[in-house]
């Protein structure tokens, strides 16, 4: 449906139909960059070309290839119908500069998606602009700053985070100009209320928290946490990366959170690979609504429209109105699943996680620091393997590649030594979970030299991480 603007079609037709043996260059390139010799392109038939590129595609690994249990990343299956609908001409062919009268369907999708996300999270309003979870966090910090400055509370310059927080949390807070204060977890792996209470002060702007946290443990004292934070005049921020554990079961808004970001490219089954595409909508309670980015998608009796009339808004966080393709796929996913389906997906995700955790613990090969009951993910420790066989979490992850599996997240959260962070999601069958568990058990029983030299049957063997860091091979455009 898209037509290239590079060629002038009449001129191209004239050139193609020309009887001249040699067509003169169009003079686009300077002489110094023009070739003087024939391009050395091999004469290969179509079959070989197709097989070459098909083989390259098989060398890649994605959620369509098999289980992808990255902890805190929720790499669930992406229903193909969502992508098909997003490719329809009426959606894919939309230009962001079109008049709003010609994109009423798109605006309806965005308007209704905001209402859906409000219902799921217990928030009052949403902005769909952020193109990633980290950008959503940054928006949350800007909203925090705007809220306190509006209330002339200029001394609040600290953000408190638990030691289990995602790495983007402190980065987002620092980007917004805040000082970071980290507090330790209890021996159960949850927020230490005593430490939190002592840390909160008139300088605290916000407490950023993931619930369940990155250990997969639900913060059961969240209402007490909320009261402590609000009693000091600070805000409570919800990192929604782990929303897949409680979707349809509990709402951050009911827990006392003021700001929420969601990862549509995680929880709501839109593609997640290669650094994008992503979407990190941010929801807020009523008291923060006036600060949301513009434009807002609104509706009158007749039409949907963009509303720029928001004098207290922090402005735009992203060009145009959000990553529409991802928003649309999430919209379709929510409509297909419905309230009961979203709840069931969380229930199965938690069931799958605890099933794998129980089998691996019963094997005696791995350890589980902190509280045993987990939600959608769990974090094992390979410290025992390291002490007994000098096999690290990195070695186990590399060896999983030889078994045809994508490894889990490793060495996170930092409070777990030799961490394996596993999140199976609701997409995987019992048979897939069993195969993954069996592979982890077999790896723990293998001779150390086999595991430490893995992977052995991948296109690229183990990379020298230290050498690559010390002697990087850098390339750049010289033109």
Overall description:
The chain is of the alpha/beta class and 479 residues long. It has three domains: 13-59, no CATH class; 80-337, Aspartate Aminotransferase, domain 2 (3-Layer(aba) Sandwich), CATH 3.40.640; 346-459, Aspartate Aminotransferase, domain 1 (Alpha-Beta Complex). It has helices spanning 9-17, 46-59, 80-86, 89-92, 104-121, 133-150, 168-175, 193-199, 222-231, 252-255, 324-363, 383-389, 393-402, 430-445, 448-452, 465-470, and strands spanning 125-127, 158-162, 179-183, 204-210, 235-240, 259-262, 282-284, 296-299, 304-307, 378-381, 409-410, 419-422. The strands form three sheets. A seven-stranded mixed sheet has the order 1-7-6-5-4-2-3, sandwiched between helices. It has a three-stranded antiparallel sheet with strand order 10-12-11, covered by helices on one side. The chain has a two-stranded antiparallel sheet with strand order 8-9. Helix 6 packs across helix 7 (168-175). It is globular, with a radius of gyration of 26 Å. The two termini are 32 Å apart.
Give descriptors for this structure.
single chain, 479 residues, alpha/beta, Aspartate Aminotransferase, domain 2, Aspartate Aminotransferase, domain 1, 3 domains, seven-stranded mixed β-sheet, three-stranded antiparallel β-sheet, 12 strands, 38% helix, globular
**What's the architecture of the largest domain in CATH terms?**
3-Layer(aba) Sandwich
The general outline is: globular
Q: Could you give a short account of the major beta sheet?
A: 7 strands, mixed
CATH T-level fold name of the largest domain = Aspartate Aminotransferase, domain 2
Average pLDDT value?
92
List low-confidence stretches: 1-8
Strand content: 5-15%
CATH superfamily of the largest domain: Type I PLP-dependent aspartate aminotransferase-like (Major domain)
Radius of gyration: 26 Å
- List the strand order in the largest sheet: 1-7-6-5-4-2-3
N-to-C CA distance: 32 Å
Q: Quickly name the level 1 CATH class of the largest domain.
A: Alpha Beta
Query: Given the structure, what is the number of helices?
Result: 16
């Amino acid at each position: 449906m898209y037509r290239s603007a590079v060629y002038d079609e009449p001129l191209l037709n004239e050139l193609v139909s020309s009887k001249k043996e040699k067509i003169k260059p169009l003079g686009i390139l300077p002489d110094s960059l023009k070739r003087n010799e024939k391009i050395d392109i091999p004469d290969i038939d179509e079959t070989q070309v197709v097989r070459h590129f098909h083989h390259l595609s098989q060398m890649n690994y994605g959620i369509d290839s098999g289980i992808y249990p990255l902890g805190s990343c929720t790499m669930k299956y992406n229903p193909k119908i969502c992508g098909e609908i997003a490719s329809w001409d009426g959606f894919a062919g939309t230009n962001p500069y079109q008049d709003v009268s010609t994109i009423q369907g798109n605006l309806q999708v965005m308007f209704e998606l905001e209402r859906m996300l409000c219902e799921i999270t217990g928030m009052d309003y949403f902005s769909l602009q952020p193109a990633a979870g980290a950008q959503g966090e940054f928006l949350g910090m800007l909203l925090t700053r705007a809220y306190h400055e509006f209330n002339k509370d200029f001394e609040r310059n600290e953000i408190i985070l638990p030691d289990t927080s995602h790495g983007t949390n402190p980065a987002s807070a620092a980007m917004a100009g805040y000082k970071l204060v980290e507090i330790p977890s209890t021996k159960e792996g949850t927020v230490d209320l005593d430490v939190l209470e002592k840390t909160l002060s008139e300088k605290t702007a916000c407490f950023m928290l993931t619930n369940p946290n990155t250990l997969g443990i639900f913060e059961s004292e969240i209402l007490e946490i909320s009261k402590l934070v609000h009693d000091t005049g600070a805000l409570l921020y919800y990192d929604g990366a782990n929303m897949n554990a409680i979707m349809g079961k509990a709402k951050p808004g009911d827990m006392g959170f003021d700001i929420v970001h969601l990862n549509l490219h995680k929880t709501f089954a839109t593609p997640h690979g290669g650094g994008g595409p992503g979407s990190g909508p941010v929801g807020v309670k009523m008291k923060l609504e006036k600060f949301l980015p513009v434009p807002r998608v609104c509706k009158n009796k007749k039409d949907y429209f963009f509303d720029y009339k928001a004098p207290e808004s922090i402005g735009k966080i992203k060009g145009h109105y959000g990553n529409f393709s991802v928003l649309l796929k999430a919209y379709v996913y929510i409509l297909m699943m419905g309230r009961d389906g979203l709840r069931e997906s969380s229930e199965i995700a938690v069931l799958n996680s605890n099933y794998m955790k129980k089998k691996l613990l019963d094997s005696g090969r791995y350890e589980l620091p902190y509280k045993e009951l987990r939600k959608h993910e769990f974090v094992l420790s390979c410290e025992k393997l390291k002490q007994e066989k000098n096999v690290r979490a990195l070695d186990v992850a590399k060896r999983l590649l030889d078994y045809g599996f994508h490894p889990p997240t490793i060495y996170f959260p930092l409070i777990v030594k030799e961490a394996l962070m596993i999140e199976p999601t609701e997409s995987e069958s019992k048979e897939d979970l069993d195969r993954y568990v069996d592979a982890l058990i077999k790896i723990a029983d293998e001779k150390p030299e086999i595991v430490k030299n893995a992977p052995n049957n991948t296109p690229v063997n183990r990379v020298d991480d230290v050498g690559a860091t010390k002697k990087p091979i850098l390339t750049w455009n010289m033109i």
